[in-house]
Amino acid sequence: MGFLRNSGFILISIILFCLLVVIGTFLTISYSLEYDTLEPNLNNAVQEFLNAEVDIGGIINQSGDNLFDYCSAHNIFSYESRKGEIKIPCSIIENGFENVVAFFVADSRFSEGLDITTQKELSGNYKSMLDYCSAHDYYFFREPVFSYESNIDCNKFLSKEASLVELAVGGFIYEIYYQDYDCGFFDCFSKTGSIFFLISQHSADYFKAKVSLFSLIALICIGILLVLAEKRSMVLIVSGALLILASFFIRIFINTLLSLGLNKFINFQEMNFDINVFFKLFFTQLSFVSTLFISI
17: closest CA among 9, 5, 28? Predict the structure, then answer.
């Protein structure tokens, strides 16, 4: 009986360790996907991508009045970008901000890697936004690549509290995050045809539910260990040790994946985007959860 009891104790301990790894991972993801945590991190990541790949910030973040005043006396607006000199005909700028975006999308230097089937309008331009926002609270905005719609806060726009890019990206994130995904977690891959549902409340709720499920199973395992252990104090020691080991295992595993570079293994089809940046969004709360595990 002693051999069987000890073997059972070891087996259940291994199962408990695996459960703690899963719980810690899912708990980290669920905390990281909380909107107040995700939004600033994702907003910064998208803006960095735009600055590095599209480099449209040089146009958008400038004063709309100055840009239009310049074009009233010139035919070409030019500036130096990271990918060379950009020359935009003023006729494009005067015909609307949506045409400026379409200009960048049509330029192979910036659109390489983008899967774009249509170039939809953004419902107006910078100058009309100034006029519209002087009498309204929100400005309707349509993103041209993935066709997400959002409302830009006119007060923040007029007060220059945030750039147009930041406000627009923030609006898209809000729409993506709170969108009603009428599908199961794995079904959403095929039904939505996109990975963006991963950064949503739908996804956060999925991982929270799994944390609850696996935590219940872990408690059952601890109960079994109490029955198998010769001394109940041993269960406390083993459980504490497993929590610490699981914490270190998760940190080492995640950091190893990031250091290897996930771009070697995963092709991010949505855009020409560093998958490591996207992957990190799910583990911004890794240090917090690790500390939580150790302190328990």
Answer: 9
Q: Which residues contact 109 (CB under 8 A, 6 or more apart)?
A: 83, 84
What digits encode the pLDDT tens for the residues 59-84?
444 444 455 666 777 788 776 665 56
Q: Which amino acid is at 166?
A: E
Same domain for 20 and 104: no
pLDDT, tens digit, for every residue of 164-181? 667 777 877 888 888 888
Long-range contacts of 274-279 (CB under 8 A, 24+ apart): 274/49, 277/45, 277/48, 277/49, 278/45
The pTM assigned to this predicted structure is: 0.70
Nearest to 195 by CA among 281, 257, 265, 286: 281
CA distance 287 to 283: 9
d(CA 121, CA 283): 35
Residues 98 and 184 in one domain: yes
Same structural domain for residues 28 and 57? no
Note the pLDDT tens digit of each residue in 8-39.
999 999 999 999 999 999 999 999 999 999 98
Q: What's the residue count for the chain?
A: 296
